[in-house]
From TrEMBL:
<dbReference type="InterPro" id="IPR037497">
    <property type="entry name" value="PGR5"/>
</dbReference>
<protein>
    <submittedName>
        <fullName>Protein PROTON GRADIENT REGULATION 5, chloroplastic</fullName>
    </submittedName>
</protein>
<dbReference type="GO" id="GO:0009644">
    <property type="term" value="P:response to high light intensity"/>
</dbReference>
<dbReference type="GO" id="GO:0009773">
    <property type="term" value="P:photosynthetic electron transport in photosystem I"/>
</dbReference>
């Protein structure tokens, strides 16, 4: 036997405990208590973002990393970064001169410089 559903319940004789409409389901004292318990406004804090840090992925790894770290501690970070900058610039010049001598174009030269940087990171020179 098939039964149909109406707003007052099942026609098969089963009743429902819900009388009224959805808009009047919370009335009177219950509504007043609920309204008092909910704050008027909600403050939302800004999400905390970590400061981006330029950090070497291979920090402390590589064959020459301990030597690089000890040297940086001995001569100081500022002088060490100046020395490393000069060494990198000199190495880039050597790569450029090599590319000129074999007739490589600028795209190949950039590839060699990137390869030198990757190798320097793996060996620990950029630790």
């Amino acid at each position: 036997m098939a039964t149909s559903i109406s707003a007052t319940g099942f026609k098969g004789g089963l009743g429902t405990s819900f009388y009224g409409s959805w808009g009047t389901s919370i009335v009177g004292e219950d509504y007043a208590m609920l309204a008092k318990s909910v704050p008027n406004h909600v403050r939302v804090a800004k999400p905390v973002r970590a400061q981006p840090m330029m950090k070497n992925v291979n920090e402390g790894k590589g064959l020459f990393a301990p030597i690089v770290v000890v040297t940086r501690q001995i001569i100081g970070k500022k002088r060490f970064n100046q020395f490393r900058g000069k060494a990198i610039a000199l190495h880039s010049q050597v790569i450029t001169e090599f590319c000129k001598s074999i007739g490589a174009d600028s795209k190949q030269r950039q590839g060699l410089i990137r390869l030198a940087k990757k190798n320097g990171e793996r060996l620990g020179f950029l630790a």
